[in-house]
């Protein structure tokens, strides 16, 4: 599923850029009096987060998620480390749902049983 792969990529990219912002750029701004990296990395995270939100919306609508789940996955891109945990959980849930759904349709139960 191409949307799932795009979600995984954007989840990692958004998470790494957010961690760069929080762990490197922000301390440089407040402790090193260097605001430049915060402006650059902050804007980069903003643009990447918008792409992340679009991909989460597309994935959520295609998999028929509840709106609350879509919003929670979107918010994971704004909390350091949360995008990584959300990605692992979403991938596991999608694989479980797809695997369980296919297995149920493919199995044929004999009429006598």
From TrEMBL:
Gene Ontology CC entries for this record = plasma membrane
Sequence intervals crossing the membrane: 12-32, 44-62, 68-86
Broad class of the protein's primary localization: membrane
- Methyltransferase as a keyword of this entry, yes or no, is no
Q: Which UniProt keywords apply?
A: Cell membrane, Membrane, Transmembrane, Transmembrane helix
Q: Where in the cell is it found?
A: Cell membrane
Q: Name one Pfam family in it.
A: DUF3817
Q: Which residues form the DUF3817 domain?
A: 4-90
Q: Does the keyword Transmembrane helix apply?
A: yes
**Annotated membrane topology:** Multi-pass membrane protein
What top-level branch of life does the organism fall under? Answer: Bacteria
* Descriptive protein name: Integral membrane protein
Specify the species. Actinopolymorpha pittospori
Q: Source organism lineage?
A: Bacteria, Bacillati, Actinomycetota, Actinomycetes, Propionibacteriales
């Amino acid at each position: 599923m191409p949307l799932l792969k795009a979600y995984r990529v954007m989840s990692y990219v958004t998470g790494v850029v957010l961690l760069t912002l929080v762990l490197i750029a922000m301390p440089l701004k407040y402790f090193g009096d260097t605001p430049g990296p915060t402006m650059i990395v902050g804007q980069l995270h903003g643009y990447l987060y918008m792409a992340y939100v679009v991909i989460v919306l597309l994935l959520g609508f295609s998999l028929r998620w509840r709106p609350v789940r879509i919003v929670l996955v979107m918010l994971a891109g704004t909390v350091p480390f949360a995008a990584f945990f959300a990605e692992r959980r979403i991938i596991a849930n999608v694989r479980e749902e797809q695997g369980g759904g296919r297995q149920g349709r493919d199995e044929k139960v004999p009429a006598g049983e």
